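seq/struct pair 1
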Amino acid sequence: MLPDATVIKSILDAAGVPCELEESTLGVIAHVPHDRTVAALQALRDSDLDFRMLVDLLGTDTTEEIQVTYHLRSFSRDEEVFVRTSVEYDGELPSVWSVYASALMPERETAELFGLVLSGHPNPRRLLTTDGIEPLLRKSVPIRTAEEVRAR
């Protein structure tokens, strides 16, 4: 089910988080500033809507910036909401692990693969690759040909 967008807006406004709401085929998406992401997620978790679970954390390169989307779920209300923020290339992504412990590994993966700096994370080291590897999921990274892969 979709949560009431006006209720989402009022919860975020009460927490001092400016947001723009979008209703799409995914559902309700709250666009928040990246420096207010932790406050937004905490407000939604602690509200009567009870968004207690972080289902997933997704990164997207838009060719202008990196968008990070947090997918939240309320089991008590059978509702889902998405919180989306934008971070400039090589920018700083604040960790939300203190709000959702399940974000520990997906945050590291997203930061590494999109070239973001992960702030406030207890272990922000690389997870999948070694130092010197460029952010593999950025659109500016060329795709290797089959021959290049075989030659390795």
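seq/struct pair 2
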Amino acid sequence: MHVLVATDGELDPAAVTKFSLPLAGDTGTVTVLTVIEVPRAMLSDLRDHFNDQQPPILLRTDVETMTATAPLDPPRSWPGDDAIIEQYLANKEQEICAPLVAALEANGVSARSKVVEGPAAKGILKTAADLEVDLIVVGSHGAGLFEGLLGSTGTKVTRLAKRPVLLLRTDIE
């Protein structure tokens, strides 16, 4: 069985392992997914963040688009934007997915990680379809009074999924 575990970093590795181990079985696999929505307006902040790191990220720039009258901030189509977003997503994959993958692998489960950019529910559903998973596991925080009215990611995925969904509550002790 191929299980997709979608997380925003709030899922406990022990709880994920407890539920995923029997589902994936000896021959199955678990893909740990995080979906990050990167508003393009954040690019200036991301540029500042990554350019201040030591050693700096090497970014190729298109010198021809930079003229003496051009603003100091590169235009929206600046070639470095993709490199910065790629690095940001790779960092998030390590930060959010790696602990779950490590816990699963430590218990003998074949696991891998994946990060995609976009709205959470849409990214989860598209990845589930692309990977042809058998089950989607989504964390449910139970955080808000208006969750049912406004629709959480877990609610949207459950309502729109074309495959089984397991909601893993993270607010239960």
